[in-house]
Every structure is written in C-alpha cells, then in structure tokens.
Amino acid sequence: MNRRNFLTSLAVLAPTTIFPNGVGFGQSSRSKTKAKNSDAMIVSDVQMLELRARDSDKKSLYIKIITKSGVEGLYGPIDLAAAVQVDHFFAKRLIGFDALAHEAYWDKMIRASRHSRGSHYSLGLSAVDNALWDLKGRYFDVPVYKLLGGARTRLRAYGSCLGYSQEPDDLKAKVQELKAEGYRHQKWFLNKRGPKAGPEGVEQDAETMRLLREAAGDDMEIMIDASWKWDLQYALAWARKVEQYNPWWIEEPFQSLNIDSFIELSRNTSIPVATGEHFYNRWDAHNFLKRDAIRVVQADPEWCGGITETMKICNIASVHGAHVIPHGHSIHAAMHIVASQPEELCPLVEYLIRKMSGDYYYFEKEIPAPKNAFFELSDRPGFGIEFETSKIEDIKQVHWDKNEA
Ligand SMILES: [Mg+2]
Q: N or C, where is the chain less crowded by C-beta within 10 Å?
C-alpha cells in the first residue's frame, strides 16, 4: 500500500509544540477546560500520527483526538488496517461530535455503513473509541479503569509463549523459567501441524502437551492455542489424548466462523474451549455463549469495537458464567478492561512475551510489562500513554489515498 505522508503546516505537529515544556502528550485536564462551555468538548480534529525513531527505522501509528477546549485523547500503537479506516471514514464523522458521547458515536457508526459488521470497520471504530476513552480519562483526570468503575490495580498476567522453541529441552527450560518468574499460567501454540499431518500430527501435538505438563508440574495452568489450524476430527482426537494432562483451555482450533465445530468440540471434551479474538461486536460473542460453544471469550478491545463494546461483551459473558480474557496483541485497553471487572469474570491479562518485551511500545515512557507475572496499573489519567521524546526523530500526520488503500 502506498502512502501519502505530509507534515501539515500547522505548528501543532512540531515536537516543541506537542511536548510543551517537556510535558507529555495530551496532558490537558478538566481544570484547563471551560467545562461550562457547551462547545468545549466538541471534537475539532482527528489525526493519525506516524512516529519515527531517532536511532532506527522503527515507526508506529497513534490516533489523536483534539477537542475545542484543548483536551486530547491518544491511543496506539494502531494497526495500519485500523488507521486507514479512521483516516477514510471515522475521522470526519467524529469532528463536530461531543467527545464525551462515546455511546452515541458508537451507535451512530454501527448504523453509518451497511458493512459495519466487518472486521476492518470494527478495527477503525475500536481505535476511535479507545482514544475517546483516553480523552475522557484526561478530562476527568482519572485512569480509564476508574471511569469504568473498577478498583483493581494489580492484575495477574499469563505468559503467552508465541515464537519459543518447542524442542523438548528448550520447552522444559522456558516453562520452568517462567514458572520461577511467577507465572501461574502459560499458553503455548500448537499451530504447525493440523489435519495434513494426520494421526502422527495428533500424536506429536499430544506429546507436546505431555511435555508441558511434565515440565510445569501440577501447580500451573497450561493453555493451548491452535491458531485455527485444526479441524473437528483432529481437535477431538487431540482432546481425547490430552484430557489427562488437564489443559486449562484449547483456543481457536477452528476459524470462529465455524461455530458448529466449536459446539461439537465443547460437547465432547471436558477441556474448556476458547475463542473471540476475531469477534467484532457483542453479537458475535452472544452467538457463541448462548449456544454453549465456548467457556472463555477472548475479545480484543482493539478489534471488537473498543472499550465500549468490550464492556458489553463482559456483561453478556457474566450472565453465561464464562471468562473474558482479552486477546493481547496490544494491552493498554485490555488491562483497563480487566481492572474494571471482577477477577471471577476477568482473571488474567495476556502478555505476549516476545512481542511486548521487544520494541512494540518503543515510543512510550512507561512500557506496560508485568513484574513477577503481575501488572501494576498507574494513576495516570486515561491509559497513561506518554511519549519518550528523546526517542522520536519526528511526528507526521499521515493520510492514505483512497484509491490506493
Ligand atoms: Mg489466539
């Protein structure tokens, strides 16, 4: 995809203006607004910002929402697919809207396009919604989880082990290393074999589960993610072999389009079945829960419609006695959702160890990372995102040509 970048002529994009007096991004608070001015919280601009690193070719996209009062909302890093949607569709429909009216905006957007059920649309709407929640937090000068009514500040993480070697010795060493760090839950990925590997594939994937249990002992929960690479027969055969090792869940053995396979698997195994990272709204979650297809909902607040929609998914899941453990491709919003809910409903935050401990949050001052397998939430307003200005070469406002997207 080609992209048309430009520095606007507005001084607002100059780093010295973005970080006045060395203060972090968007630090405006309610006290700085004319709260009684009914126009104060009207959105005046929505910008997609591309940050470029000083010392490498690292780049990230963030969304910024600006109100007439000067209070701003910030969220990111944003997926390119979401950023293009914001640029082409959502931004102009937010300008002139009350920034505190997130429910009204969400409802307006779900009715604004006949394709609003779709994935990329939901990604774009999620980016806007999460930035609105950040803005609201900065306006009221409280963290998002407090706006949502939550009181938890210490959240248990689970170690998500994508990309680690599964050679028996390596696997055993990593399981025990994470256990020593304090992780009580680990997720491993069995997404390399599947039906094309036949009965041997089932045997090998069952053997990996056996090795995981052997390495972990009985006082650790082991979860398995198949990344939609299996079919029903493969999943049933694997489940029969590994129930004895007590996996805590089997995640996304199939594409979540295939609800009947989830139902059939859930009926025929004692292992809890999980999915939801590809749910795009509360109706997707409801369809699975009302048919007893899953026991763990993994909605992603950056993909399923934002904080606003994830809260509704939590409400629905609570009625069904299911867990909501958000998908963790990015975790600012996920942490605040979990912190806002009872531990019985949202017990864990996914921590994709290799991705999140790398440079994913490169431009941020306080990079979210668990210590001894626990996240500590700060009191910073909104999501608490502040840029580390010393790492930033420049910040550009970016647009994408419609015929190239
Ligand atoms: Mg997954």
A: N
- Rounded-to-integer distance, Cα 271 and Cα 346, Å: 19
CA 318 from centroid of its chain's CA atoms? 20
Full-model pTM: 0.92
Q: ω before 77 within 30° of 0 (cis)?
A: yes
CB 135 within 8 A of CB 45: no
143 and 336 in contact (C-beta within 8 Å)?
Answer: yes
Q: What percent of the chain has pLDDT over 70?
A: 90
**Are the CB atoms for 78 and 63 separated by under 8 Å?**
yes
Q: What is the 226 CA–ligand 1 centroid distance (Å)? A: 7
Give the helix ranges, DSSP H, for 99-197.
102-110, 119-140, 144-147, 168-181
Closest CA to 326 of 308, 289, 344, 351: 351
Q: 278-321 pLDDT, tens per residue?
A: 999 999 999 999 999 999 999 999 999 999 999 999 999 999 99
Q: What is the 331 CA–ligand 1 centroid distance (Å)? A: 14
Pairing status of strand 349-352 against strand 154-160:
parallel
Helix (H), strand (E) counts: the chain: 14, 14
Residue 42 bridge partners (DSSP): 98
pLDDT tens column, 182-227: 999 999 999 999 999 999 999 999 999 999 999 999 999 999 999 9
Average pLDDT estimate for 141-168: 97
Average pLDDT, the chain: 92
Tens-place pLDDT, residues 326-383: 999 999 999 999 999 999 999 999 999 999 998 999 999 999 999 999 999 999 999 9
Centroid of ligand 1 to alpha carbon of 274 (angstroms): 9
Ligand 1 centroid distance, CA of 163 (Å): 13
For position 13, what pLDDT does the model report? Answer: 38
* Burial of 349 per CB tally in 10 Å (0-12, 13-18, 19+): buried
Task: For ligand 1, an ion, list residues with CB under 5 A.
Answer: 225
The 8-class DSSP code of residue 72 comes to E
Orientation angle between helical segments 282-290 and 259-267, nearest 10 degrees: 40
- Tell me how far the alpha carbon of residue 161 lies from the centroid of ligand 1, in angstroms: 11
Domains observed in the chain: 4-141+387-404 (3.30.390.10), 146-376 (3.20.20.120)
Residue 327 alpha carbon to ligand 1 centre in Å: 7
